[in-house]
Design goal:
142 residues, alpha+beta, 4-stranded antiparallel sheet, 2 helices, 4 strands, 38% helix, elongated
């Protein structure tokens, strides 16, 4: 009889520990959201390269919109792979712009200069190098 109660108690404790672990980590659903958001961040990073290329081929002027051209044939996704909605590109000045996506998770508590803000946007500034003419994209926060 004692052995039966010990087994039930052990199974109860194990269930509580597993439940608490899932509650703390968010479980498989949270992991999927984080993977999809990582893909969005990677896509926005690739779009920074596309913007640099487009500006470089247009005498340093930022493009009005994002588009792949023969000179700038980047393998960058222009649309969110989950929703199919286009990523947002917003020029904010002559050499500054934002790239935005609809993320499923909040940004990290400590925001790095290259990280996304609470609205899901990366702020960047296009800065061509005077020596080589090559672009250097730097973080830009409004």
């Amino acid at each position: 009889m004692t052995k039966g109660w010990a087994t039930v108690a052990l199974l109860t404790v194990a269930a509580i520990v597993i439940g608490a672990g899932l509650a703390l980590t968010g479980g498989p659903g949270q992991a999927r959201k984080e993977r999809r958001d990582q893909q969005r961040e990677d896509d926005l990073g690739a779009l920074v390269g596309l913007v640099d290329c487009l500006a470089g081929t247009n005498r340093g002027q930022l493009p009005d919109r994002l588009a792949v051209t023969p000179q700038c044939d980047w393998q960058a996704a222009l649309d969110d792979p989950l929703t199919g909605q286009p990523y947002r590109y917003e020029p904010t000045g002559p050499r500054s712009y934002r790239l935005c996506a609809d993320f499923e998770t909040p940004p990290p508590e400590t925001r790095r200069p290259w990280g996304r803000d609470a609205k899901g946007c990366l702020g960047r500034q296009y800065a061509p190098s005077p020596q080589s003419g090559a672009a250097a994209t730097i973080p830009y926060q409004e």
